[in-house]
Amino acid sequence: MKWIKNLSIKGKFALILAPLLLTTTVFAFLSLSYEYEDIAEMYHEENLGNIAINLYQTAEGLLDENLADVNDESQNNLNELRQHVDRKISTLEKSLNNIDSEAVQQIQSSILPRLKNIGTIRSGIDSGALSQQAEDNYYQTLHKDAITAISAIANEYANPTNARMLLAYTLILGEEQAAYHERTILYRALKSGSFTTEELKQLFISQGTQQTYRDEFLRIAFPEQKELFQDSMKSGTVQRKQQIANLVTANMTNQTLNVDAQQWWQTQTEYLAILHEIQQELIRQIRANTAALITKAQIEFFLILFFTLLLLSVTGILSYIVVSTITKSIKTLVKQAEKIREGDLTATFAAGDHHDEFGELERAFEMMVVNLRELTRKLQEEINTVSATAEELASSITSISSGTSETASAVTETTSTAEELKQTAQVSSEKAKEVSVSADDAIKILKNSENSLDISIDDMRQIRERMSTISSSIIKLSDHSQAIGKIIDTVNDLAEQSNLLAVNAAIEAAKAGDRGRGFAVVAQEVRSLAEQSKQATIQVHAILNDIQNATSAAVMATEQGTKAVAKGAEQSERTTESIRALSTGIGKVAKSASQIAASSQQQLIGVSQVTEAMTNIKDASNQHVNHMQQIEEAVNSLNAVGASLKTLAQKYKM
Description:
- By secondary structure, the protein is mainly α.
- It is 90% helix and 0% strand.
- It is flat.
- The relative contact order is 0.06.
């Protein structure tokens, strides 16, 4: 490709490195994109984790608010709990608006509206319109839905470690929610001194739920999370809780619980605090793991970016050094080559400084300069010899060329005279041929005219006969027209008589009265027909008059035409005789013209042969002159080339 050839060395080197650098850049860009996506995913998971934590803290605050009246908390404490819950709901709503995921959409569509409707529930609680059971169900349902939503968030985690830790956190939340429920049920039963059937059922469900969540937590939790949980379960609070639960179970049948309700409440609250501490530690671990993943991804991102830039920089610097070395050697060669081009053969090359291909190239240039010096010296010697010989040859050729030119001039004049004689003979021959051809054409025309006149005479005779026939026919037509006129006169008389009869019939019908009315109508029709017949006869009579007049005129014209045709026939016969005499004379002229043309043609052939011979002599002389001129020009050119070569050779410095 031409554009590649036109590139400089640096451009070609850059063209070679461009695909490598481009590929490296693309791979680096893709790696950075993947790392950036990982970082974005980590931040997304961190935001989801914050939403899960805020959601549960909101649900936990609602449980505390729900149980405040059970524990006879003061009104101020209840208001503080409600304000705390409202702040959590507001924070949760803001965080939900910044995250796009299915779990978040589920929270926004199902849980958040019920959280924002908490004011209505509080009004029902404060006014007593809402029963304690309905209040408990509302808060317990919200708490369960929150745990379900947190599990859905955990399922959206791309990082399996964070997802597993968040699921473990969700299970602890579930156990805590069941423990809250157990505390409420058992506290009410201890206060009243007995269990209802529904309370027993709810108590067993709560205890079974706690055990289920605990077992599931121990199954999926990481070893350090299991260790944290097991260490926490070794505290005295857990043992006191279990003792109270066992005592209640043992005395459940005789309805003598013998357990202080406030002691149970305090023990279960301490147990909930232990679960809450486990939750906080799990939250800390989740956040620490997320932060570590983000930090790792950021470090990998910046390392890839750093090494990519470092690779590109090192490649660019090394490329610049290599290209500079190459271009420096080439520029040195170009500089010495410029001197050689200007005729300075004293140029030298430092080939010993390089041991690569450029060193070989410089040594080749040095040998070329040595050879050029020797060649130039020999050329100068040969050029001097050629110049001297060319001058002597030019002098001899000039003398020969002058004599040849004079001979060619004389031959040219003789050739011109012969050419003029040839042209004159050619004109005479052509004129004689034209006369002969014209005479032959005239004879043909006269013969054609004679034949045409004979045909015309025959046609005129036929026309005269036909005119006689037409005249007879027209006369007969005139006689028939007169006969038709008589018939029309008779019809006219009949029409007049019919008209009179119709008038008489009408008169008689009028006399007859009603009986003659039909006859009167017929008489009127007959009268009308008679009148029409009369009018028709008048028109036919007028037409016949016109025909008779035209017939008379045609008879006269026919007679005149017959006479004119007879005169024309006589004139044509006389013209035919004249043409025959003229044809005989022209035939004699044509014969003489043919003889003259033949003589002129023979004379033209002889003159043409002389002219052709002189032309050949002239062409040969001209060619000889041209050859001598070419030789002279060649010798002069050779002389000029010798002088030019001598001048050029003097320019080279040796």
